[in-house]
Amino acid sequence: MDEVEVVVAHSERATLRVGGVFLKVDADRARLDAEVELMSLVPVPTPEVLWYRPPVLALAALPGAPLGRLGGPVTGSPAGWAAAGAAIRALHDAPPPPRVGRAGRSIERLAEELDSEGGRLVADGLLPAALVARARRVAEGAFRPWPEAFTHGDLQIAHVFVDGDRVTGVIDWSEAGRGDALYDLATFTLGHEEHLDDVLAGYGTGVDLDVVRAWWALRSLLAVRWLAENGFDPFAPGCEVDVLKFLTGEGRWADRLSRG
What we know:
Layout: E1 4-9, E2 13-18, E3 21-26, H1 29-39, E4 49-53, E5 56-60, E6 65-66, H2 78-93, H3 107-123, H4 129-139, E7 148-151, E8 160-163, E9 166-170, E10 177-180, H5 181-189, H6 196-203, H7 209-229, H8 240-247, H9 254-259
Antiparallel strand pairs: 1-2, 2-3, 3-5, 4-5, 6-8, 7-10, 8-9
Helix pairs in contact: 2-6, 3-4, 3-7, 4-7, 5-7, 7-8
């Protein structure tokens, strides 16, 4: 008899696996509707929709395995990471959809969020003020105009499945829409900078690495408190707090990043 596996769960949505079926439960009907629609538009493989009865979306399991997870081991070969880069490029080259995604928030809104979160991180004692200030200076590199692309919006490596050097599918399109392509690349390589060259081998040229690093800092600063309040650990080795330290010269990537 198949067991029920909780893949991820928090106050906004949850994903369960029962045998070869994933059940995604989302309290936001509009977001779930948009996910189903956008999955039908993307030029990359996605899970088969078995049925959709809001608030539940049933998806077929994908072959292969996720590339890994933030703070944990990775399973993909260099060729697998390059294939993922090529798939991301295909997505970004597709006609952008009408919906603005998470990667398309305005500079003004991002600056407001960064001000608010930075202040709360310090006030709540989660991060020291000096680290937040240094990371903020890095993050501000993402504040610039960008050409709109079709973006995933939450392109963690756990959402990309590969089998050898082939991408078998990309999951979790709830944050997809128009946005900054470099936000996706930064999300995908967050905490796994050592694979950035492999990803870019598949993705191609035209990538401003300073902006990718800025998005690493911005995404990490905005995520730390939410993660800590929802049962995740941004302080685990290789996760968001380590990324902030690396970017501000306190961690193992500092020398390489300064030469990039």
